[in-house]
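Reviewer 2 asked us to include a model.

Predict the structure of this chain.
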Amino acid sequence: MSSAAAQPPDQCRLAGKVAVVTGAAGGIGRAIVVRLAAEGASVIATARSLESVEDTVVEATRGGGVVRPLVVDVTKRDDPSAIVPATQREFGSVPDILVCCAGAQTFADIFDLDVNEWDHVFDVNARGTFLTIRPVADVMRDAGRGSIVTVASLQGRLGNRWFAHYSASKAAVLSLTKSFAVTLAPHRVRVNAVAPGIIDAGLAHKANERLAQLQGLSPGEPMRRRVADVPLGRAGTPEDVANAVLFLASDEADYITGECIHVCGGDLML
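Predicted model (structure tokens):
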């Protein structure tokens, strides 16, 4: 084997890139920040408070990554407008990559669902994604480059009695992804989505607890049933999602836009 062939694969696929990840305090958001930083990107990690994103910054910088925290509440109309000035201030550039990972989920029977819960989940997942993408896409369009990745959900392809509002909001995210993709394609800005299935992280743990209560099941039974239906036989990890996001954000996906990768262990095959 030649010395060139013996070299390890390049681990800096995003060297020189500036990335922004919203919802960086959660399990999936944190894994995405860590992965992008490990691949050489300089990252702005946003959350609703500095305290909530501290662990993300510490973990991502432990291996030498460059990460800066930023307070952004995606439900507040003007908050996402702080993203581009932050990347220019911290890294001297507009974003090359945006990952919209901020999300919320609550649980109720569709006939008992309070309209305030509906509004909250849509405000975070659908409206928040729209409000976040638009100002960043505006500067990406002017720069003639960029990759945007939204974090949807397998439930956006399905329906569910116990969180119909969440499923509907994630379907909206998938639709928005396509609308921005077709709009921005002439400007060399790609827009794609990942749709996680059952992921061993915060929202799934919350779902496991609440669905057991709503359905009269023993603790842990909803998760056990969901995992039993997955062809690959396990729940996903936040790192599984981060790996898919990395691919879509990188130049390796240069001819992909308007698509969705289902990170679900074969739970849904299209």
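The CA atoms of residues 38 and 63 lie 7 Å apart. The two ends are 40 Å apart (CA to CA). We have added this to the supplementary material.
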